[in-house]
Amino acid sequence: MNQVAQPDHRSSEHHGLVIIEGIMGSGKSTTMRFVAKALEDAGRPALAVHERADPHPVRATDELQHWFEPWRESTAEQLAACALSRWRSFAQTIRVDLAVPVLDGQLFHGDLTNLFLMEASLDEIATYCDSLVQLIEPLRPLVVYLRQENVERAVRTVCAERGEAWLKYQVDWKLKGPYAVRRNLVGLEGLIALYQDYRLMTDALFDRLPLDKMAIETRGETGRGTTGRSWNGSVWTAYQAPVEVRVTGRIRATNGPSPTPPVREHPEAGDVAVRLQSPAADGRTRP
Length: 287
Hints:
Layout: E1 2-3, E2 18-21, H1 28-41, E3 46-49, H2 76-96, E4 100-104, H3 111-117, H4 122-136, E5 142-147, H5 151-174, H6 178-182, H7 187-207, E6 212-217, H8 233-248, E7 253-254, H9 269-277
Parallel strand pairs: 2-4, 2-5, 3-4, 5-6
Antiparallel strand pairs: 1-7
Helix pairs in contact: 1-8, 2-3, 2-4, 5-7, 7-9
């Protein structure tokens, strides 16, 4: 019997918050449910918070009439301030609550995504992320980053799985924002280009997080989180044990070799800033 070693020197028993991050279709919702169950099985009350929860405890766009298009009634600065206010209240609530919240996104995938769509600068987005981290750092959060190396393949796959209506919903939302409009991003190809730029940014933000964190390369598999279906069995089995060990602090026996999630080196933030802020000659940025 092999045992999975604790992959970090900090005690998992003190995590007061778990955040599951990744692009659409990466498996955030599936992983959120698994993590909440793992905590409950370990005797720790948990609260799974889906990105579609309504009302949502931290989503600032809930306060807007045009939540679908926040740029119609809010500046990036105003949205960031509102989001931080909600996070501050949420963090105070967590400190007196026994349950460990497990969030489906919201560090990157949420209001920060809207700041990106609103064409906030990388410096503005990084400042917002740093301020958010300061609010939640006393809770000893764990950030699990589900990452697919090939963004184009990942986006094409999830769009094919979820159908034309879902693709239209994504395009009508995300490609109507200032970032996409100024770069003439349209249709599926535009959505792919948008997420290639977005992922460059979140890679850089994740790399500089001063929090307990783990990056899992899913090699293009999609989690299909919004449909309620689970990952391909072999993929989920390979990553289940290390995630469970990190969030619960319990060593878990396995019958095979100890799986280790592959972690890649992320690009430097300065390099990403140059790419994001310098449109190519045809108005499109290049990853």
